[in-house]
Design brief:
This protein is α/β, with parallel strands linked by helices. Helices cover 38% and strands 25% of the residues. The protein is elongated and about 60 Å long. One of its GO terms (cellular component) is cell envelope.
């Protein structure tokens, strides 16, 4: 059985998990590439790929009754290796963009990192417990980022302070030169878990910043069968609760 025939058969089946498994040839394995250098999403542990994406990918394949294996691939050659058929798919925090869609096809997103607002612990919380009044407040962001654009469009009375690096904004918050910092929630979470961050600062609220389409499984352009396979697999692990169980091992907030 060819890989394509396996995928088409798996996606078209509507029966039980046993029926899915019976359709899969034990000799056919879907090969998934990952970089192994972007923790907690993918990294190398005991010379083997590990992390959120690896555990999620295995759960997805199990949910579909398919055999899958992970291979390590340097980032610079990731899409090239896919085109050369060294593997069948990419799960390596590959962002879905218009430019990349010209080279590969994508599944539905399997994660998105929200935007978050943080402040010093002494900063008063809003009465509602949500987004505070930012009028006249200084907010640090990465210059020319989606976070800066969001503030300019939605909070024009905020004193926007652009920075070249996230660490610079965090330092100004730490030393009291900023009221808030807005940025990538995972990056800011890591700061809050640091020795300095634990002492000074706290999470305030998520903000609905448009961060694009998210992260998807990349496959060879035009491979509709494999896209359908991964779309169905993502839906199954979310519906079963497996997605949240795996996510909680690596990331302490929702990223769906």
């Amino acid at each position: 059985m060819t890989l394509r025939a396996l995928i088409v058969g798996l996606v078209s089946l509507l029966g039980t998990a046993g029926a899915w498994a019976q359709s899969a040839s034990p000799q056919t394995t879907i090969r998934i590439a990952t970089e192994g250098a972007y923790p907690p999403f993918n990294y190398v542990e005991n010379n083997e790929p590990a992390g959120f994406e690896i555990e999620l990918g295995r759960a997805m394949c199990e949910a579909m009754g398919a055999s899958c294996s992970f291979v390590l691939q340097d980032w610079d050659g990731m899409i090239g290796g896919l085109k050369e058929r060294r593997y069948d798919a990419i799960m390596s925090s590959l962002e879905i963009t218009k430019e990349r869609r010209k080279r590969v096809s994508f599944s539905r997103p399997y994660y998105r990192i929200p935007a978050a607002l943080i402040a010093q612990k002494a900063t008063a919380a809003s009465a509602s417990g949500g987004v505070p009044d930012l009028v006249g407040k200084s907010v640090g962001v990465i210059a020319e980022s989606e976070f800066a654009g969001f503030l300019e469009s939605n909070y024009p009375s905020t004193e926007l302070r652009p920075f070249a690096k996230q660490e610079e904004a965090n330092l100004d918050l730490l030393t009291g030169r900023l009221d808030y910092v807005l940025g990538d929630k995972l990056v800011l979470f890591r700061f809050l878990q640091s020795r300095e961050g634990k002492t000074c600062c706290r999470f305030v609220a998520d903000l609905p910043v448009d961060r694009g389409e998210g992260i998807g499984v990349g496959v060879r352009r035009g491979d509709a069968a494999l896209v359908a396979f991964f779309d169905a697999a993502i839906g199954r692990v979310i519906a079963s609760g497996a997605y949240d169980r795996i996510r909680a091992k690596f990331i302490p907030f929702d990223i769906k």
